[in-house]
Amino acid sequence: MSVAATVAGQPVAVSEVDARESILRASRQTGALPRPGTSEGRQLRRWLTQLLVTERVVATEAAALGVVATADTPGIDDVLPDLTSRLEIGSIAAAALADPTARALYEHLTAEVGVDSAAVADYHYRNPNRFAALGNPAPSFDEAAPRITRLLQGAARRRAFRIWLEQRRAALVWLAPGYEHPGDPRQPDNVHRH
Q1: What pLDDT, on a 0 to 100 scale, did the predictor assign at position 193?
Q2: What's this model's pTM, rounded to 2 decimal places?
Q3: pLDDT value, residue 192
Q4: DSSP conformational letter for 30
Q5: Gyration radius of the chain's alpha carbons
Q6: How many Cα atoms within 13 Å fall on the side-chain side of residue 32?
Q7: Residue-wise over 6-41: b if at least 16 C-beta within 10 A, else e?
Q8: What is the largest CA-CA distance in the chain?
Q9: Nearest to 152 by CA among 182, 187, 191, 124
Q10: Could you say which residues of the chain have pLDDT below 50?
Q11: In terms of Cα–Cα distance, which of 73, 114, 89, 99 is closest to 164?
Q12: Whole-angstrom Cα distance, residue 119 to residue 151?
């Protein structure tokens, strides 16, 4: 068996990357995908490898912590409500969070992440019109504070999860040559072009 990566010593076969790529190429998105065998095609395979190992890290860590998805597990739109939140957490983590177990793990790991009142007040001071309805005056601090708190807490939770995930991947994942992270400057297809 050819191995693309290992997660906690368990292999991720090249055939798994092949299968994931085949599924993607059979979807409606196929026209937007790079041709196989090109630099961009190899980068797609690296991205898919990152997704596969991230899914394995999440499954391994959720099992170790006894975390399972339940009816109370938040939906994807609760965790990643907009494009900004998806960009904050990164494309790999965002794709992995499509799985309910990943979102249950996210909830478990970030439940205690909070935002202090000074940060909420500072945000309101710097962005007084952020929650103003068109043509209406800016809301008072008391009116805006709950929404600001939710906004900042969501960003803080995503940041905490992203950092945790990066640390766990660094500890558990080994990538075979040719399956490095797409952004790794040491791999030959990571070239900046205009």
Answers
A1: 58
A2: 0.90
A3: 59
A4: G
A5: 20
A6: 4
A7: bbeeeebebebbeebbeeeeeeeeeeeeeeeeeeee
A8: 65
A9: 124
A10: 194
A11: 89
A12: 11
